Amino acid sequence: MANLSFRYGILGALREELVDTSKESAAAIAGLAHTPGGAFGSCRYKLKSVEADRAKYERLLEVLKAHDVRWFLYNGGNDSADTAWKVSQLAAEFGYPLTCIGVPKTIDNDLAVTDTCPGFGSAAKYTAVSVREAALDVAAMAETSTKVFVYEAMGRHAGWLAAAAGLAGQSPDDAPQIILFPERAYDEAAFLAQVDKVVKRVGWCVVVASEGIRDADGKFVADAGGGKDAFGHTQLGGVASYLAGKVKDSLGYKVHWTLPDYLQRSGRHVASKTDWEQAQAVGKAAVQYALKGMNSVMPVIVRTSSTPYRWKIEPAPLHKVANHEKTMPAGFLRKDGYGITTKAREYLEPLIRGEAPLPWGRDGLPKYVVLKNVAVSKKLPAWEG
């Protein structure tokens, strides 16, 4: 029996673009464990409800039937969990024996039920390391140059990555001295006053801002003006440059800013060992669940202890995960709204522990792999969707 994967996720499924992973070498498959990005490609393509997109779901089922696919493992965040759930419902309606398993994978860390999401720990480590390193440079330059540095973190509705930046420092005077979370309304006057206060006390200031911060009226502070994406989300990006401009114009300080964007989720060279182990564990459990016929479930991470850090994998019903967004608990945010609490640090710190080494080449660069992705012959008419 062939092991198949869709090219570009659910879009490849609709197009009947499948690849035969059994054509890959064992070394290439093993190399995926340290290679960033989606080996088969990914997509930003939202399937609506079964009622609204019924033709697409039926097409998907036709493709699965044509290739005798009986196990459907779909990894991703909230929308991906929702897709896996809906596919399982449709298969049941048509009496097709299909086992659907959702696999958690998102740096946003906003999936419900699971304690954390594979991908987050490494992105959190990248963020904390980058902020600490940049802060050292800012401190060195502050006497005659940059006084304020603004770092933009991913996070539309949940500020998990911004919070992770708080691990870079231990005291209020350590960077980042200011963190802006989407869970708290952005108050520009209060923010600028806080920046001025920190610079006068410390000599310089590092600000970490989540891309999804909003004002009191619920409007995104930085709307990239790129319209809506496939999920109906406003295209964000640019909050760091916006804040930098406000600080420069209002306070007169020299400012630098950065937008790491994709670097946050592709920085495999500073991956977390905890994250790597958890990613392997949920993948293994997903296959085991599928073989056992455990339909409509997701392997989730359950924290059994924080000191010492202990965790295990358990199955959770997909419908309890799908489209249930997990934001940071109020107890994770400092009362002034500009930093994380001890409780947040206790949750976050174990997730970035340890290193996950990867092979390096003689050229000084990591040795990543690119799969052959041998296409499977199509059996159905072309999709006209």
Strand content: 15-25%
Give, in order, the helices and strands: EHEHHEHEHEHEHEEEHEHHEEH
What's the total helix number?
11
Give the neighbour order of strands across the main sheet.
Answer: 6-7-5-10
Pairing-aware structural class of the strands and helices? alpha/beta
Overall pLDDT:
93
How many strand elements?
A: 12
Characterize the overall form.
Answer: elongated
Low-pLDDT stretches are 224-233
Briefly summarize what is shown.
The chain is 34% helix and 17% strand.
Structure description:
The protein has 385 residues and is of the alpha/beta class. 34% of the residues lie in helices and 17% in strands. The chain contains 11 helices and 12 strands. The strands form 5 sheets. A 4-stranded parallel β-sheet has the order 6-7-5-10, with helices on both faces. The protein has a two-stranded antiparallel ribbon with strand order 1-2. Strand 3 (71-76), helix 4 (78-94) and strand 4 form a beta-alpha-beta unit. Mean pLDDT is 93; it is low at 224-233.
Topology of this protein?
Layout: E1 4-6, H1 9-15, E2 18-20, H2 26-31, H3 54-66, E3 71-76, H4 78-94, E4 99-104, H5 120-141, E5 148-153, H6 160-165, E6 178-180, H7 188-202, E7 205-210, E8 223-228, E9 234-236, H8 239-251, E10 255-258, H9 263-266, H10 273-291, E11 297-306, E12 309-317, H11 342-348
